[in-house]
Write a structure and sequence with these properties.
The chain has 202 residues and is mainly alpha-helical. The chain has 9 helices and no strands.
Length: 202
């Protein structure tokens, strides 16, 4: 009797997760993944195009959640700025780490720390660039609304954003437990938030 394909897919994904976590994308092999789940390589290729497609199936849900979270939370800043209303400072990156990233540490560890050689290799750098551009756009909207927004150059902001996001994701890179990550976040919050508030004239 043929095995249920959905059951096979679950086995493949579990084996692939183990393989990528242990070896990283670059050193992982489809043959090894097949051995882990007791299937042939040909059987695995019925569920994915190639190794990168398999890796993407594992990490894309985490990426999608991150992008959706960011999209929703940007509205907290963009909408008031657009309407000329008073801005209430909230730090979306720290909220994001606490609410989304750290509770799903394994998925984000794969995405950020095990992706060398895949199209996700520069994910953290790309995220920093995008955050920087969004923040510059946000400052421009604040000025247009008449708010006392700081004047900071792209180069200066890049330095700050790189240091900030790198620090926030260090627990992910090193695959901390949730409890360890939250403890680290409290230190980062105490260190960075006063600086951001001062920069924003708050």
């Amino acid at each position: 009797m043929p095995r249920d394909k959905s059951t096979n897919h679950i086995k493949i994904m579990a084996a692939a997760r183990e393989e990528f976590m242990e070896k990283g994308y670059e050193k992982a092999s489809m043959r090894s993944i097949a051995d882990r789940c007791g299937m042939t390589a040909a059987g695995i290729y019925r569920h994915c195009k190639d190794k990168e497609d398999l890796f993407c199936q594992l990490v894309t849900p985490a990426e999608d959640k991150l992008m959706e979270w960011a999209k929703e939370h940007i509205k907290r800043y963009a909408d008031p700025a657009k309407k000329g209303k008073k801005i209430t400072w909230q730090d979306s990156h720290i909220d994001m780490m606490r609410e989304l990233v750290y509770p799903n540490m394994v998925d984000f560890h794969l995405l950020i720390a095990k992706s060398k050689g895949s199209r996700y290799e520069n994910f953290l750098h790309d995220m920093t660039e995008e955050s920087q551009n969004r923040f510059l756009d946000y400052l421009a909207k604040l000025r247009k609304s008449g708010a006392n927004a700081p004047k900071i150059t792209p180069v200066q902001l890049h330095l700050l954003m790189t240091a900030y996001i790198t620090a926030l994701f260090e627990p992910v890179v090193h695959n901390y437990s949730y409890e360890e990550a939250i403890d680290a976040l409290s230190v980062l919050e105490a260190f960075f938030l006063p600086g951001w508030k001062r920069l924003m004239n708050l």
